[in-house]
Amino acid sequence: MTTAAADLQIAEEDRLRADLYNFLGLLLAGPPDEMLLSQTASLNGDDGALGKAITSLARVANVSKPRGVSAEYNALFIGLGRGELLPYASYYLTGFLNEKPLARLRKDMASLRMSRAPNVFEPEDNIASLMEMMGGMIVGRFGVPASLDQQKTFFNTHIGVWAPHFFSDLEAAKTSVLYASVGAVGKAFMEIEKEAFRMTAG
User: Fold this and answer.
1) HSE on the CB side for 72, CA within 13 Å?
2) Quick check: 1 pLDDT over 80?
3) Is 3 strand, coil or helix?
4) Average pLDDT over residues 19-35
5) 3-198 has which CATH code?
6) Membrane-spanning residues where (predicted)?
7) Do residues 55 and 42 make contact, with C-beta atoms less than 8 angstroms apart?
8) What is the Cα–Cα distance from 112 to 196, expressed in whole angstroms?
9) pLDDT at 176
10) Neighbours of 195 (CB within 10 A)
C-alpha cells in the first residue's frame, strides 16, 4: 500500500488524535526547546475541557523559557537519584519498575511490529513512549493504520489503566509549572479517549 493510499484511510479526527498523542510524547520525552515552546504558545483550544486545558498550556508556554522548563523537567523526572515522578506503567501498576506490565507491552509491541529506537535506553513503558506508540498506531507508522479494536485494546491494556492517574499527579506535582498544564491536557485527553473507546463495540 502506498503512503498516499494509507493517508486516505485516516480520518481528520484520527489524524488530530495522533497529533495530540505525538505532541504529548514530545513534551514528555525531554524538555522543550525554544521552537517547541513557541509552537505550544501558538495553540488555541475550544470551550471544552480539553480545549481549555490546551489554551492554558499555550498561555504558560508563552511566558516560559527553555532553561526554566529544563530545570522543571529534571526535577520532575530525573532528580538526584530519582525525580518527583516515575512515569512508568510498571511503577504505577505494581509499585516497581520492570515488572509484568513491561513484559506484556514488549510482547504486544512485537506483535504490532514496534521496536525501541536504538538510542533509547529506558524501559518502553514510560509515558512518552506510550504516547508516541499510540500516535504511530493511529496513522500507520508501524505498517498499516491500527484498527479501532487494536487501538482500544492497546489503550485499555497499556495506557488507560494508569496514564490518567499519572497526568493527575503531574498536574499536582510540587515542581510542576508548565508541566502542570501538560498534565491537565493529558488528563482531559485520556478521559475523552477512554469514553470514546468505551462507546465502541468489541
Assistant:
1) 23
2) no
3) helix
4) 97
5) 1.10.3480.10
6) none
7) no
8) 22
9) 97
10) 9
Q: Is the Cα dihedral 30, 51, 177, 156 positive or negative?
A: negative
Render pLDDT for 123-134 as a digit per residue (tens, 0 to 9): 999 999 999 999
Inter-residue contact 40 to 57 (CB < 8 Å): yes
Q: Could you count the other beta carbons within 10 Å of the beta carbon of residue 172?
A: 10
> What are the phi and psi torsion angles at 83 (to 5°)?
-85, 180
Tens digits of residue pLDDT in 57-110: 999 999 999 999 999 999 999 987 889 999 999 999 999 999 999 999 999 999
Residue type, 127: I
Type of residue at 67 = R
Domain boundaries, the chain: 3-198
Tell me, what's the pLDDT at 143?
87
83 contact partners, CB below 8 Å, separation of at least 6: 74, 75, 76, 77
Torsional sign, CA 158, 20, 142, 170: negative
Q: Which residue carries 485494546 as its cell? A: 153
Give me the count of residues in the chain. Answer: 202
